Fold this sequence. Notes:
Layout: H1 2-16, E1 42-44, E2 49-51, E3 57-58, H2 63-66, E4 69-70, E5 73-74, H3 75-81, H4 90-120
Antiparallel strand pairs: 1-2, 2-3, 4-5
Helix pairs in contact: 1-4
Amino acid sequence: xxxxxxxxxxxxxxxxxxxxxxxxxxxxxxxxxxxxxxxxxxxxxxxxxxxxxxxxxxxxxxxxxxxxxxxxxxxxxxxxxxxxxxxxxxxxxxxxxxxxxxxxxxxxxxxxxxxxxxxxxxxxxxxxxxxx
Length: 132
């Protein structure tokens, strides 16, 4: 179990450091040309679009990824809101799409980690032995 969890943890580290090769397999699109300026960030759960202005959006963002919170904030929403009134560069749009991949993979790995622990059955909750 330790080695399996260590492997999964290593995958998480690579994702969060933006070093995983999986980040190159984008699951979203930024298909419409425009000003690339972040005006108002809004998510449409019916079509998985994250709108940044009246004409441009990131398409294909899973609802679970949009709703993923760290520290009380939706990661995908906060990243864009922190860039309000700014024009996104190509690198910015690609980085945002990689963040979506990283969060999608994080959600998958969290489920896999939970499954590994459940399969173990008797998860060690405390150390036993001399002085522990």
